[in-house]
Design brief:
Pathway: Cofactor biosynthesis; coenzyme A biosynthesis; CoA from (R)-pantothenate: step 2/5; Cofactor biosynthesis; coenzyme A biosynthesis; CoA from (R)-pantothenate: step 3/5. The longest helix has 17 residues. The radius of gyration is 18 Å and the shape is globular. By secondary structure, the chain is of the alpha/beta class. The chain contains five helices and 14 strands. Bound molecules: cytidine-5'-monophosphate. The site of cytidine-5'-monophosphate has 13 residues, from helix 3 and strand 9.
Length: 223
């Protein structure tokens, strides 16, 4: 893709998993690789945008030519996103953010006992929902990684979180979702339009995503 349609635009992307500490040696996380978000950041950069990439821990090389902010916990990602938000035109939240976090983070390694262990979890702040409540003119894109009722869940997320678009993917499908180099997604706009994309590289998905954002913010429709 050689389009330079994002010159002068500021794009904020989140990527990767988060890590919620239990004690100094243990944490709760998920299988997100960061590949989708990094591909989005690189596509935005190549189309001329100024890009801020806020990333949880991944094994990917840092993309050159983007502002990179490394975070671990939901709270760190929340703080970094809220700081960058006022200066952003397009916000794409592809990170797989933890929904819950341990109520207590122990200062020392927890000892084994004889019986079972129950870990208490509190709700973590929903970054995307908070952006949806605070946003001014930003074009806001969320992700819905689902294992069932994909499109229904994506639609309700889009509405509940006040998004302009949502990218829905079934993470159980081969060639889609976490860790894979390819993805199979459906783009859904606020007005209910849907575009189902074939299996393609995450970079190609990223370019389709920016094509769709361009169409929606220009003519107000995906077709
Ligand atoms: O409702 P659910 O967590 O599945 O929604 C997924 C979307 O919400 C993703 O875009 C993800 O980055 C975002 N999210 C978030 N903060 C959370 C949980 C999810 O920003 N605590």
């Amino acid at each position: 893709c050689t389009k330079k349609d994002l010159i002068g635009k500021k794009v904020l992307v989140t990527a990767g998993p988060t890590r919620e500490k239990i004690d100094p040696v243990r944490y709760i996380t998920n299988h997100a690789s960061g590949k989708m978000g990094y591909a989005i950041a690189e596509a935005a950069r190549d189309r001329g945008a100024d890009v801020v990439l806020i990333s949880g821990p991944t094994s990917l090389p840092r993309p050159v030519g983007v502002d990179f902010v490394a975070v671990e916990s939901v709270q760190e990602m929340f703080d970094a996103v809220m700081e960058a938000l006022p200066d952003s035109d397009i916000v794409i939240k592809s990170a797989a953010v933890s929904d819950y976090r341990p109520r207590t983070v122990y200062d020392h390694k927890m000892k084994k006992g004889d019986g079972e262990l129950v870990l208490e979890l509190d709700k973590a702040p929903d970054i995307l929902k908070t952006i949806g409540e605070r946003k001014a003119n930003q074009f806001l894109v969320g992700f819905a990684a689902e294992t069932q009722d994909l499109l229904e869940n994506a639609k309700s997320k889009l509405e509940r979180k006040n998004l302009d678009m949502i990218v829905a993917n079934n993470v159980l499908t081969e060639g889609a979702g976490m860790g894979s180099d390819t993805n199979i997604v459906t783009l859904m706009s606020r007005s209910g339009e849907q575009v189902e994309l074939a299996q393609m590289s995450k970079r190609a998905v990223a370019d389709k995503l920016f094509d769709a954002i361009g169409l929606l913010s220009g003519q107000g429709s995906l077709r």
